[in-house]
Design goal:
By secondary structure, the chain is an alpha/beta fold. It folds into two domains: about 120 residues, HUPs (Rossmann fold, 3-Layer(aba) Sandwich), CATH 3.40.50; about 120 residues, HUPs (Rossmann fold), CATH 3.40.50. It contains eight helices and ten strands. Strands 3-2-1-4-5-10-9-6-7-8 form a ten-stranded mixed sheet, sandwiched between helices. The termini are close together.
Length: about 260
């Protein structure tokens, strides 16, 4: 992952505490610094609010053990636009918290969080308030038919090297369903890249045991069952599953197991 530091969004709610603590975890493993970003919406742009937010950001850095690693950044903008714009300024990674399908304040949840992951020019890690702060020892990488899979592979390899993690290349096998040539080509590309870089990996072909039109629920169940510390997905939809992909990706980002999700 290019860039010099990790961009971490905060809306000063508990889930952004988790995001900042996770950013500290990644920063320590990658010898990076952190930019702690808060975006002030229009109704909060007063001198008094700005002073209060700056104080709250300082308290959060102290509370999350980030005071030595994080530099605060306060900008005035629409939230999604402001965060997306900041990702263009030399950061290596974006870490953000999602409030789940109900949402709070900055509304980074569900479809909005997916929009942010797509707008970001750097890979994005999405965490939930109850996400584990343990180093990911296993990353689940579902096979996908995207033509630009290398961007996700770059991010997965970087995270796997940083944490000494194994990668499970996961394929759901349904009765009488034949995977496309594009999907099989990408699977071979994933396994070859991981082997070439010396990253431990498993080729997982799991028979479908529950009815599901998409891939999210079986992937989440598998990741939870093996105690995976991260799931890695493409942020945008492939042509193959575009008609259901957005809902499936939103489900992954707000998964009930609270597993961090790496998007690229």
């Amino acid at each position: 992952m290019p860039g010099t530091d990790i961009l971490c969004t905060t809306d000063l709610t508990p889930v952004s505490d988790t995001a900042l603590r996770y950013a500290v975890l990644v920063a320590q493993r990658t010898e990076s610094r952190i930019t702690q970003l808060h975006v002030l919406p229009r109704n909060e742009r007063t001198p008094e609010t700005r002073t209060a937010v700056e104080a709250a950001m300082a308290e959060q850095r102290m509370r999350c053990g980030a005071q030595e690693l994080a530099t605060p950044l306060l900008v005035e903008d629409d939230v999604l636009k402001g965060v997306a714009q900041e990702t263009t300024r030399g950061h290596r990674l974006l870490i953000s918290g999602t409030h789940g399908p109900r949402g709070l304040r900055q509304s980074l949840f569900g479809a909005d969080m997916l929009k942010l992951a797509r707008l970001s020019v750097v890979p994005t890690i999405v965490v939930q308030e109850s996400s584990t702060l343990e180093p990911p020892r296993t990353i689940v990488l579902p096979v996908a038919a995207h033509a630009d899979i290398d961007r996700l592979l770059d991010a997965v390899c970087s995270m796997a090297r940083a944490f000494g993690a194994a990668v499970h290349v996961y394929q759901l096998v349904r009765p009488n369903e034949h995977p496309s040539d594009a999907l099989l080509t990408n699977k071979a590309r994933m396994l070859h890249r991981l082997h070439t870089e010396g990253i431990p990996c498993d080729d997982v072909m799991e028979p479908s045991t529950i009815f599901s039109i998409g891939f999210a629920e079986p992937t989440i169940r598998y990741a939870e069952r093996i105690g995976a510390g991260m799931i890695a997905i493409m942020a945008h939809a492939s042509d193959e599953y575009r008609y259901i992909a957005d809902a499936e990706k939103e489900r992954m980002l707000t998964n009930g197991a609270s597993i961090p999700v790496l998007c690229a």
